Amino acid sequence: MIDLRKTFARYTGTLRHQKIWYVLNNVLHARQLRGNIPLYRQYGIRRSVFAPINSSHISQPGPLPWLDRPEVYTHLDSDPVYRRLTPQQQQWVQDWCRDGYLLLRGFASPERVAALNAEVEALLASGRLRYNYTGVKIMDALHTSPLVQAMSEDHEVISLLALLLQRPVRPFQSINFKQGSQQKLHSDFIHMATEPRGYLAAAWLALEPIDAGNGPLLYCPGSHRLPYVMLPDFPHQNTKWTLGRDSYRAYEAHIERLVQEQQRSVVQMEAQAGDLFIWHANLLHGGAPILDPQRTRKSMVTHYLAQDVLCYHEITERPTLFGKNP
């Protein structure tokens, strides 16, 4: 007897790997892609904004963020921007250059964390927020929850990121977690590539105590200085018309080999509610296994994009569609 559910799953899975459906989806969201037209001209991309795009289509790359440039990294003390900063700002810049992240302990007060958790729970109960297919992620709650939006638009965070990137930044995506992601090591850049490279950052907020038992964040200090891993660097299996079924697994295997070859240390970050972890677009990070499945690991991450930057998904070759935060 035919299992209709399995047949339907196989059918829809096949469709998801056909690039034509993403092209049609782009056409349906034409208004959200109009802003890419001048960026395509600027970066030498000779394609329709509706067509698939990856890093190989960029013929005129833009300049890297100031702290990613070799001359600044090696001669930071003589940089005029750095010399005008306060001692605290200089320390942040040094840490970002060396490690690719900043850890701000106790950034959000217990009252703010409690209110944020309560609002998200209430919106889930009312059906205004829902977990995605993973069962642990709530995508883009910043468009529904005033407190998630306020956290994502926090002036201190945005000012700090503007300092690190030397451009105005804006939040464009939030993810709230119920449990740890258990995701293998990766760079955000493979999901949210930018041109110029490096003009993306993330801010992750712990919303309850996190330790080895409930799946803490993993990260590799200094890995942001490794070369960006793009489609040509691993056996992605994409073709002109289709997406490779095992492309992401091939990417994860490549990153695992890279970490071993480079002898990079992997650190578990235990945190208290209110701790804020900010990381570079190319910092390798992931989620540790959950040792106690009865525990939650509530947290939220906001991804920030710098002004006048193109954003796209390298593996699925899709330009980013901006919603309520154009």
Write the layout of secondary structure elements.
Layout: H1 4-16, H2 19-28, H3 30-33, H4 36-42, H5 70-74, H6 80-83, H7 87-99, E1 101-104, H8 110-126, E2 137-139, H9 146-152, H10 155-165, E3 169-177, E4 193-195, E5 200-206, E6 217-219, H11 247-261, E7 267-269, E8 276-280, E9 285-287, E10 299-306, E11 310-313, E12 318-319
Antiparallel strand pairs: 1-8, 2-3, 3-10, 4-11, 5-8, 5-10, 6-7, 6-9, 11-12
Notes on the structure:
Helices cover 33% and strands 17% of the residues. The chain contains eleven helices and twelve strands. The chain has helices spanning 4-16, 19-28, 30-33, 36-42, 70-74, 80-83, 87-99, 110-126, 146-152, 155-165, 247-261, and strands at 101-104, 137-139, 169-177, 193-195, 200-206, 217-219, 267-269, 276-280, 285-287, 299-306, 310-313, 318-319. A hairpin with a 4-residue loop joins β11 and β12. The longest helix is centred in the middle third of the chain and has 17 residues, at 110-126. The chain starts with a helix and ends in a 7-residue tail after the last strand. Residues 1-12 have low confidence and may be disordered.
Uncertain stretches of 5 or more adjacent residues: 1-12
> Helix-strand pattern, N to C?
HHHHHHHEHEHHEEEEHEEEEEE
The chain-level structural class is: alpha+beta
Distance between the termini: 49 Å
Q: In percent, how much strand structure appears in the residues? A: 15-25%
Output the strand order for the largest sheet.
1-8-5-10-3-2
Mean pLDDT: 93
Q: What's the helix count?
A: 11
Radius of gyration equals: 20 Å
Q: How many E strands?
A: 12
